[in-house]
């Protein structure tokens, strides 16, 4: 047992440990998501088109595009990512406007969220999440510490983020608007924004969400189902009720992969919003808890990467992206098990959705890029040429930033962390590898003593 512990400790102490974990978690979640989409969508795919693999092939296409995006996100230098941040924001806003125009945006079930180009549909709101993360981190890290007043931190970030939220609400798509608001609040939180003002913003956002809920009948019905699930079991509460039946029927170890009965047209959106219910049905409590543990591990890893990243921009991107992933997974699992009203947010990398999967893989690529900018990882990459994986992927050796504002200034616990710029990061990297004792120096010290 001690030998295993020592080996794990040795492996965890390697400079590229975080990068290897990001690659491992990304591969594991992606492969598991493909398997679950195939299992959960086979019946409906066959009924709708005569082939059990239609949705799976579409998901596989999204994964293929996402792997290209992942590689680009890992390979792009920080300077290029920052140059693309503002153009990405502008493109996202233009797409959010275009999707609202009849004839350009496609309306499905009363929501205009998709744009079809040459038979390929995508959701601009998914791209907007990534654009807000990059642009917000770029704007905030341009501000030196001495100039980080409330006004400088809010402008132009707050108006730009609220504009995105308003355009998404008009689709209507309140769940994605809430996600954008979470990203906006996370940007301000990690940069050290005043907690009292931030708390006021959160309260105002909750109040706005409540008002929007009461102004739309279908949103109000979802809240009614949450507090009274037995009110209309064959109508409004049917989907939530079937999800709970699927979770309960799985028991401890589940019915086995492919053996879920919920996907036989009993549970609507079994391969998309409610795929976690199919996970519980086929893999049981053990499988469901394992999925939750995987996302918890991703959150802990992402925050560790953000704290150790030598580049302030990438560190903030990693922290906010991690918060986004954790919040979206929590909301999805929360409404599947009946703790939250149904919102329609997908389970990252597991639910069906080509646009969301491709862009989420891009986000994981950003986490991998930030992991490569750990001071110890940079030193190891310079010494060994990047390591086996970096050489295999032909990744350039990351550079240590020369100067810049502090990294993430507030930890996940909410306590203000000491400002650490690249210089202090390099000092910590050097202190992690103290110089070997010199016999001559020891003799001189002994002589002076």
SSE layout:
Blueprint: H1 2-12, H2 17-49, H3 54-75, H4 78-98, E1 105-108, E2 111-117, E3 120-122, H5 124-141, H6 150-154, H7 157-169, H8 174-190, H9 195-214, H10 217-227, H11 238-249, H12 275-308, H13 312-336, H14 354-372, H15 375-384, H16 387-393, H17 422-432, H18 439-448
Antiparallel strand pairs: 1-2, 2-3
What do you see in this structure?
- The protein is mainly alpha-helical and 449 residues long.
- The chain contains 18 helices and 3 strands.
- Strands 1-2-3 form a 3-stranded antiparallel sheet.
- A hairpin with a 2-residue loop joins β1 and β2.
- The longest helix has 34 residues.
- It is globular and about 60 Å long.
- The C terminus is likely disordered.
What structural keywords apply?
449 residues; mainly alpha; 18 helices; globular
Placed side by side, the strands forming the largest sheet appear as 1-2-3
Number of strands: 3
Number of helices: 18
Q: Whole-number radius of gyration? A: 24 Å
Largest sheet: 3 strands, antiparallel
Average pLDDT confidence is 84
H/E element sequence: HHHHEEEHHHHHHHHHHHHHH
> Per the principal axes of the C-alpha atoms, what is the gross shape?
globular
Low-confidence stretches: 402-406, 415-449
Q: Tell me the distance between the termini.
A: 45 Å
> Structural class, please?
mainly alpha
Approximately what portion of the residues adopt beta-strand conformation?
under 5%
- Helix proportion range: 55-70%
